[in-house]
Amino acid sequence: MPNIKIGLIGYGGIGRVHAAAYRAIPFHYGLPADSIQISAVATTRESTARAAADEIGCDEYSADYRDLLARDDIDAIDICTPNNSHHEIALAAAAAGKHIYCEKPLAMNESEAFEMAEAVRAAGVKAQLTFNFRFFPALTLARQLMAEGFCGRAFSFRGRYHRSSYISADKAMSWRLQREITGGGALFDLGSHILDLLYYLLGDFAAVNATLDTLIKQRPIAAGQGETAPVEVDDIALLQARLADGTLGTVEISRMGTGATNDVLLEIFGDKGAIRFDLAEPAWLQVYDVREGDRVRGFRKVEAVGRYAGQRAPDWSMPPGFMRAHAECQYQFIRAIWDDNSPEPSFVDGLHIQRIMAAAELSSARGGWVDLAG
């Protein structure tokens, strides 16, 4: 397997997570230390780029991401920048023949997402999206059970993603609260994750009926400042959804979930069984099997722990964590390059999630059900 050289674009909180995960992959899979390397990093300022390079341990840095695209020794680009730059960077990377790993959500809107998916298809490069929650072993097991028909005919589903990160009216404006930078609020930030998990387990969405609301409409322009600015993105999104096969469900998304640190819950109910995933217990999947009979019925916990195929360390009995799921998502991207396979979740997957979110925004604006376009 050839060594893979990564160009990292952006080095905020999520950039650090990606950098740490790349470094961990060789330990997890018994690979040579130099098999996956961040060769260069770019941020918007030379000083922050130099500091990022010092932390990562790479020699090359730049205040212009295009410098990374021009380098012959870089195989893949990792986009860890705010949402409004994904489209431009991805199109430029595809034109330069670089493989692309991109943070979620894919784009600012459906049109940008479509162009990005088309650009990577035309360029013939590998492109994957960071929907890292897919890579908790419990959700891998859930996917297998759904494929095997464990739940039978799906009757309904429920997904929830709550955080309490914006409950204080004193919290200042940030790029995540500015529509021109982020494209959307809680729906884009958290909703893209839970919508992807439901799509991953159940398939395409067909229509949504949504209500989005901004609960704190003015925030300080900076910490401790009296001057405020309007918040133009949603704090909460409540969706009814119908899948392509007719299954109905609900999705709750909120950054105003008081008491919730990172509350992710997913439930699927069918005529043969049910499954439940709770991020608070990422090493376990709860299952209910109708076929077990009345005397032994009930939800039971099934261990998934650290069962990653081919993993050498930590051993399978160790429960997974947030960073491990990121590393596995990135490892599958690298494997797709090495094995010349189609990476998942792909930009086409990201486009479908973008369409769901666009339909939800339209539904909230005009009221009533909205069918997904395309």
Structural class comes to alpha/beta
Radius of gyration: 21 Å
In percent terms, what proportion of residues is strand?
A: 25-35%
The helix fraction, in percent, is 25-40%
- What profile does the largest beta sheet have? 9 strands, mixed
> How many helical stretches?
10
Order of helices and strands: EHEHEHEHEHEHEHHEEEEEEEEEHHE
Q: pLDDT average, as an integer?
A: 95
Poorly predicted spans: none
The 3D shape can be described as globular
- N-end to C-end Cα span: 38 Å
Q: Count the strands?
A: 17
Write out the strand line-up for the largest beta sheet, numbering strands in chain order: 16-15-14-13-7-12-11-8-17
Can you walk through the features of this model?
This protein is an alpha/beta fold and 374 residues long. The protein is built from 10 helices and 17 strands. The strands form 3 sheets. The protein has a 9-stranded mixed beta sheet. Strands 3-2-1-4-5-6 form a 6-stranded parallel beta sheet, sandwiched between helices. A two-stranded antiparallel sheet has the order 9-10. Helix 1 (13-29) crosses helix 9, helix 6 (137-147) crosses helix 8 (186-202) and helix 8 (186-202) packs across helix 10 (347-366). The longest helix is centred in the C-terminal third of the chain and has 20 residues, at 347-366. The chain is globular, with a radius of gyration of 21 Å. The two termini are 38 Å apart. The mean pLDDT is 95.
